[in-house]
Write a structure and sequence with these properties.
279 residues; alpha/beta
């Protein structure tokens, strides 16, 4: 268990208990890894990218928000998400000049975002329009119960991955990839999405390495928890779990082997320059 309790808190935007605000007209089309495993399988089998779904449905949506503050007293799950998210931003703030940190939003079931309606069934995600990481804390149970990825550092890896997408946003990589995808066919577009996701995995590894060097908080088994989580959310593994055919052209996040490889590449080097998945 990662020794996180002494970590710095940066605050969370806590929307839990506000209600989802989802009306009958909201499309429920598949998201990523989330509490509804059918949605999880739908995403990976049919190639529905939550980033694309959000960007298509939400550019004119109204964003719900609350002030960033501390977690309720005794809410360890909230505190954990706060510490991990803050640590990731602290690491990247030391690597990128002028870096502005992301905000983490905790919600239940659904919430308005700068990219449209976010839903728990999409799993944790990052919205570049409002520079926020969105997380339903029930996802930790999905990781353990449905995907076999237990331990707190499994969720830490996921948060580190989403902050990796924030890094791609502030450095302009995300925009370049999205612009390039518009001119490509489906399989070529998916291949670029895979490279983007694998780089975020690598960035999660960079954060894990550098944060441990600063805090000495990783304990025996923590790294294995992250690697297990990376393997559990590979496109091929999820398609096999669904009982369907593995279709490489539909992959949008990478195979289990690729996701483990790139997380390890980031962790082994601690160097963002080792994360050029586009080469």
């Amino acid at each position: 268990m990662v020794d996180w309790q002494g970590g710095r808190r940066g605050g969370v935007e806590d929307r839990r208990g506000q209600g989802s605000g989802m009306g009958a007209g909201v499309a429920l089309g598949g998201g990523g890894i989330g509490a509804v495993v059918i949605a999880l399988i739908g995403y990976f089998v049919f190639g529905i990218d939550p980033q694309v779904l959000l960007s298509q449905t939400g550019q004119t949506g109204t964003q719900s928000s609350v002030a960033v503050g501390g977690c309720p007293e005794g809410d360890k799950a909230c505190d954990f998400a706060d510490v991990i998210h803050t640590s990731a931003n602290d690491v990247w703030g030391g690597l990128i000049q002028g870096y502005q940190p992301s905000t983490i939003v905790l919600y239940t079931q659904g919430t308005q975002t700068g990219c449209g309606m976010g839903q728990s069934a999409m799993g944790p995600f990052y919205c570049p329009a409002d520079q926020r990481v969105y997380l339903d804390l029930d996802f930790a149970h999905t990781l353990e119960r449905d995907l076999g990825a237990s331990g707190d550092f499994a969720l830490a890896y996921v948060i580190g991955h989403e902050v990796g997408h924030h890094v791609q946003n502030v450095t302009g990589v995300s925009d370049k990839v999205q612009n390039a995808r518009r001119a490509l066919g489906e399989s070529e577009s998916n291949a670029l999405s895979v490279k983007l996701e694998l780089q975020a995995d690598c960035y999660a590894g960079v954060w894990a390495k550098r944060s441990d060097a600063q805090n000495h908080w990783l304990q025996s088994g923590d790294l294995e928890e992250a690697i297990t989580a990376a393997s559990a959310v590979g496109d091929d593994t999820l398609q096999k779990r669904s009982g369907g055919q593995v279709m490489p052209d539909s992959f949008t996040h990478g195979t289990s082997k690729e996701r483990m490889f790139w997380f390890n590449a980031g962790y082994s080097s601690g160097d963002p320059n080792a994360c050029n998945t586009f080469n």
